[in-house]
Amino acid sequence: MAVNYGSKRIVVGAHYGTRDWLAQRVTAVLMALFTVIVLARVLLSKGPITYDSWSGIFSSQLMKTLTFIVIIALLYHVWVGMRDVFMDYIKPVGIRLALQVFTIIWLVGCAGWAIQVLWRF
Q1: What is the tens place of the pLDDT at every residue in 54-101?
Q2: What is the pTM of this model?
Q3: For the chain, how many structural domains are there in total?
Q4: Residue 33: which of 5, 74, 2 has the closest Cα?
């Protein structure tokens, strides 16, 4: 005798809900706070903004680390948004998968480039 404990609902599409909504808001707030910090440092600096003063803002290890954290937050923010757009508007699975794979490769490449820029490897 088969026992049916209920049906399992299968949801497709952009079904990540609250977690991704919250991730988008948290990463946006983090990026906004970082922007305010950088603007404050630029506006409070003495004299004209030159390359040396600009690179001086990002010369400390703490600022490099904060910048990289914000870049990772930006990349995750972009991934969630692009994934949702692809799932909502690109119906053929093969094309959607190819776009998602391309996006992941592009974002990982951007993260690698950010490491090179920040730490000059």
Answers
A1: 888 999 999 999 999 999 999 999 999 999 999 999 999 999 999 999
A2: 0.80
A3: 1
A4: 74
